[in-house]
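Posting for a labmate who doesn't have an account.
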Amino acid sequence: MTRSPTVTITHCDFTAAMEALGLIQPILLLHGQENLPETYINGSRPIDAMFTSPTLTMTRGGYLPFGIGAGDHRICWGDFTYVSTLRHKSPDIVRPAWRRLKLSNPRVVTAYVGAKVKHVEAHDGHS
């Protein structure tokens, strides 16, 4: 079977079927059709693609060089936003404020040393 030289991943029945399902090619949208590399090692045009839901937001993406991974095709990769993939924003991490041991207060030092000794004894001499 001979393939038409105009058949690429951007112009084929498979792509038309994916688009009919509402899927998009985020790498194509990110870089443009003229910037897509050949994806088969002996090829001269892109024949591999990634299809996603239009609700996913790709921030970076592309194709890895030949020879990375198994096979003779380039691997597609993409970074997507956390919010677009999991549908919620993760809460901000609240880091505890540093509290210094007040060495000038003997009561605080005695309480700390007592707690430390108790901890070391409870863990068989390992702190």
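Reply:
Got it, the structure tokens are right above this. The first strand starts at residue 58 and ends at 63.
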